[in-house]
Design a protein that fits this description.
The protein has 7 helices and 6 strands. The chain is α/β, with parallel strands linked by helices. It has a 6-stranded parallel β-sheet with strand order 2-1-3-4-5-6, sandwiched between helices. Strand 1, helix 2 and strand 2 form a beta-alpha-beta unit. Helix 3 packs across helix 4. The longest helix has 20 residues. The chain is globular and about 45 Å long.
Length: about 230
């Protein structure tokens, strides 16, 4: 037989157990994801990301998880821009406390971010890397401005930047890579310049170069890849 004191203690223990909050189920917890750094292309600015940013917010990203890097697109990929992007990524990691970021690049921004990943320590700080219509193996249209513009020279087929990015492993490290490319791209020539060995390479159909930035199917593919 329990004594009156023992019965009282048992009753108090039961009451405390009933009052304690139930542990959250795993499905109810907010997903753990990397902040996203958006890197625009040549002669552009962070404003080009308006549509994708809106879609990412609708998918649950907070503004504090979305970062659009702006930079001078006429500078050298390897000597200037990749290092500036690296410093920006470090600031994002400091602000958010994240170990890694995800990078989404358009066009020329793909070369800048790839150089950072491959040669600037980004294999340790980038989780997902995405290229939208990137001239990853060069584009012949860049010859039109290569005479006076360093960034254009970097985009030409066989340039120092293109050759070094293609040498060895095109998709190094533990980073997961994806490209999205159009077979009607009027800027990247040939269209086959975009896909990379070791990446998830997705054709988006017949879209103009800049149309990938606002295309619903491309956006859905980007969001699915970031969630993978």
């Amino acid at each position: 037989m329990l004594t009156a004191r023992q019965r009282l203690l048992a009753l108090l223990t039961l009451c405390l157990a009933l009052l304690a909050p139930f542990p959250a189920h795993a499905a109810d917890r907010a997903p753990v994801r990397n902040p996203v750094v958006l890197v625009h292309g040549y002669n552009a600015d962070p404003g080009v990301w308006g549509s994708l940013r809106e879609d990412l917010r609708a998918a649950g990203y907070a503004d504090s998880e979305l970062f659009s890097w702006g930079y001078d697109t006429h500078r050298s990929v390897n000597e200037v821009l990749a290092g500036q992007l690296g410093a920006y990524v470090e600031e994002v990691r400091r602000q958010t406390g994240a170990a890694r970021v995800d990078v989404v690049s358009h066009s020329f921004g793909s070369l800048v971010s790839r150089w950072y990943v491959k040669f600037g320590g980004g294999t340790a700080t980038v989780g997902h890397w995405i290229s939208l219509a990137g001239p990853n193996h060069g584009t012949s249209t860049a010859w039109a401005c290569a005479l006076w513009d360093q960034a254009c020279r970097d985009m030409t087929p066989g340039s120092y930047v293109v050759k070094n990015l293609a040498a060895g492993d095109e998709t190094p490290g533990a980073v997961t890579y994806a490209t999205f490319w159009s077979d009607c791209d009027e800027v990247v020539n040939p269209d086959s310049s975009v896909p990379l060995a070791g990446a998830v390479n997705t054709p988006v159909g017949c879209l103009d170069h800049n149309a990938l930035l606002g295309d619903d199917a491309t956006s859905a593919g980007v969001r699915a890849f970031l969630a993978s």
